[in-house]
Design a protein that fits this description.
- It contains six helices and 16 strands.
- It is an alpha/beta fold.
- The longest helix is centred in the N-terminal third of the chain and has 13 residues.
- The two termini are about 35 Å apart.
């Protein structure tokens, strides 16, 4: 009979790390953490730019820390260092490069099944996954021939490209700002004004626009995209047509509802927990 863990934690991001550390502090001895990536905080490593600001408080909402991880304002790098230090101080069984496919409830425990068919048992399960691992996609179709250049991060930008950044949040502003020196960048947001992003990011973007280093297209949307001799031919709702080597979509993320349903989590029609 396989051993039964006291707690199994799905996800080794900030929430999963905090959960595991707090569990140890409160005397839980037998903890198992699963992460489909190669390391903890995979989403931060993959989707956050280098030196990206990571703020504790945002939009006037002050967060009162009730746990034992002393999180303060910092950058991507300092945040990763903080989480690394927090993990090193705790005794946790972590299984990386391990993805969960299903969780079923038995009489007094949960059975956790990985995508490779392995099974584990735990008295309690904490699902600590976010939305960034499943980014939103545009409503229109992307030509199959160009899918490898329709990205959700800037990691594949090679420089000397015409790049279209689509979105209106922090990621979109940061992507455009970080790559504008090595690429010709166009920033597109369907609303007339950028309101969701951090004022610091908006200021950086608008300074580049004023200096004519970034082309700004606000208040117009994209109707469709075609492949024109290996480039994106983009048709805007105002009748304009643009041609680009690469498109970066920063449209936020969605709740992984199918995964939650496979874990016995009940959701309503708005994908809220019941």
């Amino acid at each position: 009979m396989k051993s039964v863990y006291d707690i199994a934690i799905i996800g080794a991001g900030p929430a999963g790390i905090a959960t595991s550390c707090e569990a140890v502090i409160f005397g839980v001895k037998n903890i198992l953490m699963f992460e489909k990536g190669e390391n903890h905080s995979q989403t931060i490593r993959k989707y956050f730019n280098d030196n990206k600001p990571v703020d504790k408080d945002w939009k006037g909402i002050e967060v009162e820390l009730k746990g034992h991880i002393d999180f303060k304002d910092g950058t991507k790098e300092s945040t990763l260092d903080l989480f690394e230090e927090s993990l090193e101080k705790r005794v946790i069984d972590a299984k990386f490069k391990t993805e969960i496919s299903q969780i079923s409830r038995l009489k007094n425990r949960f059975k956790i099944i990985t995508t490779t068919g392995e099974s584990y048992f735990a008295k309690r399960v904490v699902i600590a996954i976010g939305k960034m691992g499943k980014p939103n996609k545009p409503d229109y179709k992307i030509p199959v021939t160009l899918k490898n250049r329709a990205n959700h991060t800037i990691s594949d930008c090679k420089g000397n490209e015409d790049v279209l950044v689509v979105g209106g949040g922090d990621s979109a502003c940061e992507y455009a700002y970080f790559i504008h020196q090595d690429n010709k960048v166009t920033f597109n947001y369907r609303r007339e004004k950028i309101t969701k992003a951090n004022p610091k990011n908006i200021k950086n973007l608008m300074n580049c626009v004023e200096d004519k280093e970034i082309d700004l297209k606000l208040g117009i949307d994209i109707k469709k995209v075609e492949d024109e001799k290996g480039k994106f031919k983009v048709f805007y709702t105002n009748g304009e047509i643009g041609r680009y080597d690469r498109i970066i979509y920063a449209l936020g993320g969605v709740t992984p509802k199918e995964f939650l349903k496979s874990c016995c989590v009940e959701l309503d029609e708005k994908v809220n927990l019941i």
